Amino acid sequence: MKLSTIATVLALSVAVSACDDKKETPKSEPTSAQEPVKKADTPPAPTAAQEPGAAPKLADAKGSYELDPAHSTIVFSAKHAGFSWTYGMFTKVTGKMNLADEPDKSSVEIEADAGSVFTAVKKRDDHLKGGDFLNATQFPKITFKSTKIEAAGDGKYKVTGDLTLHGVTKPVTVEMTHVGAGEFPVDKSFRTGFEGSFTIKRSDFDMKNMLAAASDELRLTVAVEGVRK
Question: What average pLDDT does the structure give for the chain?
Fold first, then answer.
């Protein structure tokens, strides 16, 4: 190939490259200064049952209620040989509440199936149902019936009543907190709930076996939710 031809080809290549370098890179279009800014969704106003920090009023929840077994339970704990607390619960809890304008005109009845005791260990559950502890065959029900209810301020109530456990009835007083009240959006039922804790000695209810292995003191928490009729 002649030198003049090679020179011509090289010159053309340089010219094409120079033209390519001068091409402008496309610029993105600026966002309009007047484009509206999206506002965050405003949450719906809370219902009366959702108001933070507001204690429910008994008068606003007055009526007759059946306890909802799916949202009512009794949780207990006992010390294992003084080393740690072991927890369990009764999974079958039923009952009723009658709530009036005034606490002293209200009442509550709660019933638990002793055979529904559950600690997540079947061997222990079977032992608790037996004669050393609950004797659930002879005493299948654990019941509480209120005899007096007093206001304790800030949505709390002192509920005194008769607790029957292991065939023995003793008076107990439980401070219950009114957790909430209002319409349940799923089925439009009106519901209200209470929770309270107290301590008993199982020996007071004639359960005196194996006190070294399982403490005499039992801590109980009652949590109930009622559906208004």
Answer: 86
Q: Domains along the chain? A: 54-228 (2.40.128.110)
Residues in the chain: 229
Q: Distance (Å, rounded) from C-alpha 66 to C-alpha 162?
A: 19
Of 134, 132, 144, the residue nearest 74 (C-alpha): 144
Query: What type of residue is 109?
Result: E
Cα separation, 107 vs 109, whole angstroms:
7
* Mean pLDDT for the stretch of residues 22-32: 48
Rounded alpha-carbon distances, angstroms, from residue 145 to 108, 125, 138, 172? 6, 26, 20, 10
Lowest mean pLDDT among 9-13, 71-75, 137-141, 205-209: 9-13
The pLDDT tens digits of the residues spanning 147-159 come to 999 999 999 999 9
